[in-house]
Every structure is written in C-alpha cells, then in structure tokens.
Amino acid sequence: MMEVSAQIHGVVVDADTGEPIPYLNVYYDGKGVGTITNLEGKYTISYHAGWTKLTFSMVGYETQEILVSAKTSELNISMKETSQMLDEVIIRPRKEKYSRKNNPAVEMIRKVIASKRRTDLKQKDYYRFYKYQKIMFAKNNITSDSLNQSWLFKKYPFFRDQIEECDVTGKYILPLSVDETVYEDIYRKEPQSEKTFIRGMNSSGVNELFSTGDMLTTVLKDVFQDIDIYQDRFRFLQYPFDSPISEAGIRFYKFYIMDTIYVERDKCFHLTFVPNNSQDFGFTGSLYILADSTYRVKQCRLNLPKKTDINFVDNMVIDQKFGELPTGEWTLMEDDMLCEMSYLKKVLGSFLVRRTTRYFDFSFEPIANQLFKQKGKEIKDINAMMRDNEFWSKYRQEDLTGSERRMGSFVDDLSQIKGFKYIMFFLKALVENYVETSTPDSKVDIGPINTMISSNYIDGLRLRASAQTTANLNPHLFLKGYYAYGFKDEKSKYMGEVEYSFDKKEYLPREFPKHSLTLTYQYDNMLPSDKFINTDKDNVFTSFKVCTVDQYNYERKATIKYEREREFGFKTTATLRYANYEPCGRLFYRTMAGEQQLQAAIADGTLTGTDWTHSPFNTNDITVAEASLAFRYAPGETFVNTKQRRLPVNLDAPVFILQHTLALKGILGGDYTYNVTDFSAYKRFWLSSWGNIDVHLNAGIQWNKVPFPLLIMPAANLSYIQQDETFNLINNMEFLNDRYASLDVSWNLQGKLFNRIPLLKKLKWREFIGVKCLWGKLTDKNNPFLEQNQSDGMLMMFPGHYNPAGGYDYSSYVMDPHKPYVEVSVGIHNIFKLLHVEYVRRLNYNHLPTANKWGIRFMIRTVF
Fold first, then answer.
1. CA-CA distance, 201 to 392, in Å (whole number)?
2. β-strands 193-205, 378-380: how paired?
3. Collapsed DSSP state (helix, strand, coil) of residue 824
C-alpha cells in the first residue's frame, strides 16, 4: 500500500521579475499525481515515500526536477524563461503575439466544442438526478495575533471554538452561516419540460437573527450561481461570462497547450486560458481534456484575474470534475467554489463564501407525467424545511465541518452576550430599515425608519409613525399603516391597509409568488409625480428637491386590489379605486368656463387683486371611480425580500406590462368617464466586455376628453437622488399629453474606457452613458389653449403661477408632436465601490421659463 506522509509547499516565481507564476505544473513525473500553482504562485503537494523527484514545468520556462525527501516541507522555486516549439507554433503565455490561426490549442478547443452534443443529457428522452448544495459564509483570515490578543476571543471562548482552518487557503476562518439544499431535477424531451423540486432545506447561523435572514441565502445563491462550462454563456456574480468552450470564448480568451498529465488515471491534455484583456469580466483557468477521440472535459479550474475590474473579490477558485456514469453518459459530478471577498478591508476585514455542489443518483427511466404538470419551474416541497436526520444522512453528500455542526449553539451563545440585543437592534434598523417590537418572532415591526422625519412644501416639518404586522401574528392576514402630522398645514395624514394572503407566508405578504386581496384607505398630500417614484414619498433623502415644488393635492383614496402571481413569471392585478383630489399649495383647479367668469368679474370690478390661486370660480375638488386590469410577464425574474419592499436580483429577465383603466361617471360620485391604456417593456442587453445596455420603453393613451389632472404626465424625478425610469430635468407636470411614448436607454461600459487610463484603472471607476426621450401629443379635444375650448366647462387651465403684476405664468405646456424632449447623461459609478454620480443635460425645450438645463444626480449602488 502506497504511503503518504507530509505536505510539501512553496512559492514559484519568475527568476527575472520575482513575480509569482500562476498555473504552473507541479507533479511527480510518470506517477499521475500533480497540482498547479494558484494565482499567488503557491502550491501544496503530498510527499510519497520512494518518490524522490518533483517536476516543475510550464511552457515558456525551463523545466526543473528537484530532489525531495520526507524531510522536505517548504520548497520555493525560481523559474527561468525559455522558448518552446510545439507543432511549429511558439507557445509562450507571456510576452508574445497571440494568434488564433493555426494554433493547436484553439483547434483542440474547437474539437471540444464539436463534441459538446455528446455530453448533453437533454439528448435523452428522460433524466432525473439529485443535487446537494452547501453554501458556507465565514469571516476570513483570522490571524494568530487576533486569536491570542483579541479581547473578543479572550472574553468569549465560544468564538475560539468556532474557528477552523480552511483546507483550501490554509487560513483560519469563523463560519457564520451554513445553508444546505437538496434538489431533484427531472427532464422530459417530448413534450419538453423540466422541473426542479426542492426536497430539503437546512439553514443555520447569524442569518437566523434577522427576520429577513433568507435575504443572505437568496443573494448568495444568485451571485454564486452554478456554472456549466458546456453552456456557451453562464451567469455568475450577476454578470454573464462566456464559457471557454464556446465560439465566443475562442474570441474572448487566449488558449495555450501546457502539457499532458494524468488526472485520476486518465491521460489528459492540459490547456490554460486567459482573457485578451485582464480587466475584462472573464476567467483565467485550466482545462483537462481527455486525450482520446471524445475530447471530453475531465476537470476544469476557473479563477478571476487579479487585475479584473470585478468588485469585492480578492480571490476566486472554482473546481469542477466530470465523470462517466455507469450507463456511459458523461456529466458534471462535483462543483466546488471558494471566494474571498472584502469591502473596507481595514475596517471590516475579509469574508469567505464556499459553495459545495454534488450531483448524484442519475436515472434515465421514464418519469410519471403528473410530476411535470405541477405549476412552476422550481417547486418547493411542503416539508422541505422540516427534514429529519435520516433524510440528511441519506442525501448529504459532503460532511459538515465541526464549526458547521456547532452553528446552532454558536448562535445561541452569541445571543447571550450582554448588550448583544442592542447591537442587533441597531443593525436591524440599519439593514432592514425596521425595528422589531420583540425578539425573536416579532409580530409587529415599526418602520420604515427613514420616513420618521421629513419635510415638504405643504407639511413643513413632517413627523410620521409607521408599522406593519408579520406572519408571526397571522400568516395570512397582514396589517400596515402610518400616521403623519405636518406642522405647517397642521393637518393629520394617515394610511391603513389590510391584506389577506391566500397562501401562507413566512414573514411578509409580498413573498413570491404573491396571491392576495388588499384593502387600503389613505389621506395625504401628494405630488402628482409621487406615483412614479419607487421609494417612499417620505424618504428623508428624496425630500430634498432640486427646485421649488409647490403644486400638490390632498388625496383621499380607497382601494381594493387583487394580485395573483404565477411561478413562471406571469402576474395579474385587478384594482378598484375611489379617489378624491383636492388641490393645495399653489395648485388650483379652474375650468375654462370658470376662467371666463373670473376675467369678467375682474373686468367689471366685482373682484380685485393680483393672485387668483384661490378664487370663487375654482373647482374645489374632483372625484373619480376607476377599475383597472394589468398583466405583467417577467420570465426568469427572481427576488430578494426586505421588510420594506421586494427587490429583483436578476435584472436580466425581460419585463412586459399591459394595463387598462376604466372610470365611469356617476359611479360612487365619479365626475368623469375615461379610458387609459398603458404598455411598458424592459430588456437588458449584454455586450460581452463592453458592459450592458438597459432599455425601457413606455407608451400610453388617454382615450377620452378629461381635465388636466387626468391627462398623462411625465415620470418626473424632482430630487437629487437618481430614480430609475424617471426624467431628471422635467419639472412637476411640465408636459401634459393624452398620447405619449418614452424611451430610456442606459449603457454601463463596465470600465471599458477607464481601464485604459492608469489612475482611473486603479480606482476601478466605471463609465455610464444614458439618453431619455419623450414623445408627446395633446389632441384638440383636450387642449385648453385652442380657441374652440376657451369656454369649455370640463377642460381646466393648465397649472401655473400668478406673478406680482397679476399675470399668469404657465408651468405646464403642450409638446410639439414632431419634437421629442431629450435629456442625456454621462456618469461615473463605482466610486468607492458605492457611489454613482451623473451629470444630466437637457437638449431641447430649453426656451421654456421653467426649464432646468443641467443637473447633478446621485445614487448609492453596489455591484460586482
């Protein structure tokens, strides 16, 4: 029996430059045992008794054979460069002019691509397999000094008990959470259908301390998705990557044949690859391809280049192993990922994410049709989170480490620390924007915190108290509301909401998929543009406006809304709404007939003055009763739940929305009959190393004759905070239309240009270009400026302000249907890996008195 003893480790560097050499082969010649150096040039290999020569080789360097013995522990090597010929093509990974033409490495990759079909399990009529996945999140790189000197480890020994050594990096880590999932995947070729059943889930760690703790697991699973290199393109770190074994990969990567080597008794060609540009979003790595006629991938290793423009990632290693099933099929068997990450490293240190995935129990027997009839592509077993030890002993394919097994007691010990509840109180308020009234299992949460104090033109100083119930009170019935008070108008505002979820929820009613009936009653002052802003109207940060905003409504609304989401991304929303709008501030309602009466009264001296914002001929309010039906389709969209809102985490999903609203005069006191149809579409397009383009298209029609509050107004953003799908330099109600179309195109270049500038390259800033266009038309029946409408009893004067001389200056205008409004923006994002800044320029309609020609907008945005 072969004896294995100590480990030999060391660093391999370039003899001339002293730089570490990654992907260099370290092996026992003729023994089929070896390894490669990592990005830092480090390697570790076991010493085997009787094997005395260790070989270091890489094309472009002189091969070295070094004598080793049982006493050899550390072995550092300096490699000298040389040239090597292979099939009459010089192969040198560094300092060479790379050519794809007549390149044997590229030709081999083409053969691998040509053979991909033979490895595709979807050529079978049926298949079924299980997948076990474990994701561990840990504090990384706990130093020996910290262990010996830190007051935390001295005062709380259970922290020391939780420390363990990572067998990949050799660093000490503090595991903080572990999540296990068992999936069952089934597939049918005709008619084609595939389903994923979540058979078991087990989660423990610090995420349990947060009510929205599933947010961490959801984000980690989305960011570190499974990789299939046999796909032409896969999504990872929320970006698409071209696979090295694809036609796009041949253009994106440089390939080199390194050597032949044995991998688990199989002779393989060893190929390495690197991106053409190290700053681009791509991998470096190694492929081990069977040295036979099948050209199947036996093993691969993927790394992120150190110079890559990807944020937060210090080191990334992905190892995949493929194998042959007893039935002869070739498939992925093991998929291991390790990522070392950091942000504000000197303050927060670094963290480690490790994903372990195993595929097992493959079957190609026919599968019962009823399994494919279940709704949705991913179906969660009702008992998935209640599996016992017998289940996990059967399906767990990778043993838990000691720290992972102790995770539950670690969290219990953590909760017992004096003052810990106050720390958690602060963290929850910061992360979740809500405060729990009890821990654990809060039944009522207070918040959002950032709406408690704000200000606006009507309220002046505004104080607000808000709260919502959780599934801990009732998993089907949810209450939400707020009370606010404005010290300027001395009025109370309030909102109350009751939502019944037909499906049992874990914490909040908005959890996907949503199926609920909601009743809402609200009285508050609102900007007409507030409905276009995704954040809460009382958000303290968006309450700072770029201009004076003084035209508001007091709105009293009662709403009944039914929502039904399907697992495949289709959503239906039916809404009944009663609304009363009372103008306030500098906004007023006056029909054209009322304006004629006012002018007549002024002319005959009945009325005197210069400001007729408040006039006896004004209309006090308007009332509408409307019903709307909306359909939304977003295939492949995924979400993460927070206490305040549900956020999409997969922005690659296209989104299509069609809605029609009908209002009838006389119903519940409604003053008008009208029909409004709206359509919107969104799609993200990836341009490989040139980043991505986001496209939003919107269009709508108001079919009937209505006063201006019921016309279509642009989505105007009046704050300094950037808001998606809004115009930055259009004022409140500046353009009023009954036909419109808008286009919003934004191009994030991912640093493609800045990476060519040394200073900006080091800062990792990324460039942004955007253009927003609005086409609008106001038909004659709704145009109060036309002579035939001057005495109309329905149409109202467009909004404006009286000047000191008594003249009326309009602030809302009719667009030229042949002249679209256009604003462009250029921006820098990823400043401090956090801040996005845009300069916005308005290109036309600048002759209008209310026009703002340019502006600066900000946004907090963290992306990889």
1. 10
2. parallel
3. strand
List the structure tokens of 862: 């963290």
pLDDT digits (tens, 9 = 90+) for 355-400: 899 999 999 999 998 888 887 788 888 888 889 999 999 999 988 9
SS3 state of residue 749: coil
Between the CA of residue 342 and those of 93, 135, 312, 424, 864, what are the distances in Å?
30, 18, 5, 22, 12
- Angle 659-663-668 from CA coordinates, rounded to 5°: 135
**Tokens linked to 133:** 């996945």
Does the structure show a pLDDT above 60 at 2? no
The CATH number of the structural domain formed by 430-860 is 2.40.160.50
Task: Round to whole Å and give the CA distance between 757 and 852.
Answer: 33
CATH topology agreement for domains 4-82 and 430-860: no
User: What sign does the dihedral 423-429-431-432 (CA atoms) show?
Assistant: positive
87 three-state secondary structure: coil
C-alpha 262: how far from its chain's center? Answer: 41
Tokens of 735: 């353009």
Instruction: Decide if 26 contacts 38 (C-beta within 8 A).
Output: no
Q: Is 697 helix (H, G, I), strand (E, B) or coil?
A: strand
Q: How far is CA 779 from CA 140, 773, 816, in A?
A: 64, 20, 11
- Contact call for residues 181 and 201 (beta carbons, < 8 A): yes
How many angstroms separate the CA atoms of 269 and 260, rounded? 5
The strand pair at 164-165 and 172-188 is best described as antiparallel
By the 8 A CB rule, do 738 and 816 touch? no
Contacts of 323 (CB under 8 A, 6+ apart): 330, 331, 333
Q: Are 609 and 474 spatial neighbours (Cβ–Cβ below 8 Å)?
A: no
Quick one: DSSP state of residue 712? Answer: B
Largest Cα span, the chain:
117
Closest CA to 714 of 749, 689, 739, 692: 739
Terminal-to-terminal C-alpha distance of the chain = 49
Instruction: Decide if domain 4-82 falls under CATH 3.30.70.100.
Output: no
Q: Model confidence over 512-563: pLDDT tens digits?
A: 889 999 999 999 999 887 777 767 778 887 878 888 889 999 999 999 999 9
- Residue holding tokens 């080091």? 762
Across 180-192, average pLDDT: 92
343 versus 256: the higher-pLDDT residue is 256
40-80 tens-digit pLDDT = 888 888 888 888 889 888 766 788 999 888 888 899 999 88
pLDDT at 600 over 70: yes
Contact, 553 vs 528, CB < 8 A? yes
Q: Where are the domains of the chain?
A: 4-82, 115-237+333-415, 430-860
**Among 286, 371, 281, residue whose Cα is nearest residue 26:** 286
Question: CA-CA distance, 735 to 777, in Å (whole number)?
Answer: 9
Structure tokens at 182: 């068992």
Angle, in degrees to the nearest 10, between helices 420-432 and 407-415: 100
Q: What is the dihedral of CA 91, 96, 100, 105, to 10 degrees?
A: 20
**Side chain identity, residue 564:** R
